[in-house]
Amino acid sequence: MRLSPDKHMSLFSQRKGIRPLEKLIQRESMDDDLKNRLWSAIQMAVWDHWHPPDSMGYRSEDDRKVESVVRSVWLNYFKLPTDTIPAFNYGNPQSAYEIIRTHFFDGPWWQSYDLLEFLLKEIDGRWAEGLKVISNIFLEEENAAYRIVDDKILEITDSTELGAIEEALETKFRSVSEHLKQSLTLLSDRQNPDYRNAIKEAISAVEAACRIISGNDKATLGDALKQIEAKHQLHPALKGAFNQLYGYTSDAGGLRHSLTENSVNPAYSEAKFMLVACSSFINFLWTKAAELKISIKKT
Q1: Is there a smaller number of Cβ atoms within 10 Å at the N or the C end of the chain?
Q2: How far apart are the C-alpha atoms of 210 and 203, rounded to whole Å?
Q3: Domain ranges of the chain
Q4: Which spans in the chain are helix H?
Q5: Residue 87 and residue 85: Cα distance in Å, rounded?
Q6: Do residues 52 and 91 lie in contact, with contact meaning Cβ atoms separated by under 8 Å?
Q7: pLDDT tens digit string along 149-169?
């Protein structure tokens, strides 16, 4: 079964101009096509692992994993008593499966994303990776304004930006990855986004990477960049660009310091740019270190 239609194949109604070849970007909305496909992604990646007990009452490990996910949905997502969880039988309108399905389909657009994001954090790692891959295919094809990065849904559509963040998150250095993950968390919070601190965390990830590369645990970003430029052939123009970005975060109305009456409230666009830019710079640093055969101790 193919997950996606041939992108070069248009349907009759599209060739006749009855339906558009490409949808408008779905931002703060979710049409039926997208909702149906995202539920199918959840179905394939999670629910299809469950089967009714056989005649001898045998339950597989996958069956137990699915039922554990359902229990977590009840306890931590719905926040209902666990003694009210019904059986997980398909078809029965009172079953746990149908209740979760109705919640996904009948709620507002953000509720479907909430459930998808919750499941990404709760399910088996292999299942989560499959769900992420399938969902991102559908999100792109249905022209949604969101993609899954790590286990969070972020408003981003550019595949290059997405790849930069994902590559940076794969670092073996915890001090770097924790700052990036926190920036991503603050940026992707749809109810209470914190763009100011998302920017702080992104630049802090760069600082952490620079300290690792420079070998100086106490260096500031400026100090670390000077050392890298001197020791490891960092181009002065590139160093200057990041010093200017660092200056923006230091001077732009309390981004890295206490708030004042003249403080600027950054928008999503600025916070996303900083996360992408910082991720790209971190990727550059690791690549440069590998090219120059610089020995870096894991922290």
Answers
A1: N
A2: 11
A3: 23-156, 158-299
A4: 12-15, 32-45, 61-72, 96-106, 109-122, 125-141, 159-169, 174-188, 195-214, 221-232, 236-251, 268-291
A5: 7
A6: no
A7: 989 999 887 888 888 999 999
